[in-house]
Amino acid sequence: xxxxxxxxxxxxxxxxxxxxxxxxxxxxxxxxxxxxxxxxxxxxxxxxxxxxxxxxxxxxxxxxxxxxxxxxxxxxxxxxxxxxxxxxxxxxxxxxxxxxxxxxxxxxxxxxxxxxxxxxxxxxxxxxxxxxxxxxxxxxxxxxxxxxxxxxxxxxxxx
Length: 159
Description:
Blueprint: H1 4-26, H2 43-71, H3 74-99, H4 104-125, H5 128-157
């Protein structure tokens, strides 16, 4: 049986996490947050958004695992742990992006791998959004590879 205190604690953690993610992603609370959105998203903004998504996924996984522990539901425990692993992978991916400057070909391969990881995590957790986003990232990686192939072909014409 779940106690009122456990539900209250879970609710406070979930709401706090959502507020933190909203603050990071949408810059809520800053004076420029109400300005017109920029036409293009910059790399630092994308990195911040990816890290915020990873943090939210981690907290979501911790909450789901905790609920599974409280209720004795092994599926929730497993899915919660899977979400935490996915968050760690996303953070590791962002760390790698920060540390190295990738060639365009390597960026395509990295996007493909990132998509496969996200799709697999979505399959494990049953999250259709992660499955779809993973497939989209793989498609983006394939598109980048096609562009690099075209660049190579054009370059070979002049060699």
